[in-house]
Amino acid sequence: MNKLLGFILALIVTAPAFAGKTYQVTGPVVEITDTAVVVQKGKEKWEIAKSASTPVKGDLQKGSKVTVEYTMSATNIEVKPGAPKK
């Protein structure tokens, strides 16, 4: 039991290290769905995934100015064949 408790505590303490770098984008909301929010940044539209468990402070609606914090994480990596080494 003590080993399990130790493992859980270690996981809690080290979890932020695995979260990765955090980024943010600020601008008006142009679209909201159950799985994403789209923010206008200059001439670009940034679609950022969200879930029902994503914390939202305030009333998220189309036209609202928001700052969205997000992380980037690889879901798949495929190595392509390259030129043979000399």
Structural topology:
Layout: H1 2-18, E1 22-32, E2 36-41, E3 44-49, E4 65-71
Antiparallel strand pairs: 1-2, 1-4, 2-3
Protein traits:
alpha+beta, 86 residues, 35% strand, SH3 type barrels, 4 strands, 4-stranded antiparallel β-sheet
Description:
The chain has a domain at 21-71: SH3 type barrels. The chain has one helix at residues 2-18, and strands spanning 22-32, 36-41, 44-49, 65-71. Strands 3-2-1-4 form a four-stranded antiparallel beta sheet, with no helix packed on it. It has one helix and four strands. The longest helix has 17 residues, at 2-18. The protein has 86 residues and is an alpha+beta fold. The mean pLDDT is 85.
What is the number of helical segments per DSSP (H or I, 4+ residues)? 1
Name the CATH architecture of the domain at 21-71. Roll
Quote the distance from N terminus to C terminus. 56 Å
Radius of gyration: 19 Å
Could you estimate the helical fraction of the residues in percent? 10-25%
Q: What best-fitting shape do the alpha-carbon axes yield?
A: elongated
List segments where confidence is low: pLDDT < 50 over at least 5 consecutive residues.
none
Q: Could you please say which CATH topology of the domain at 21-71 applies here?
A: SH3 type barrels
Number of strands: 4
Give the spatial strand order of the biggest sheet.
3-2-1-4
Strand content: 25-35%
**Highest CATH level, the class of the domain at 21-71:** Mainly Beta
The secondary structure category is: alpha+beta
Task: Indicate the mean pLDDT.
Answer: 85
Order of helices and strands: HEEEE
How would a crystallographer describe the biggest sheet? 4 strands, antiparallel
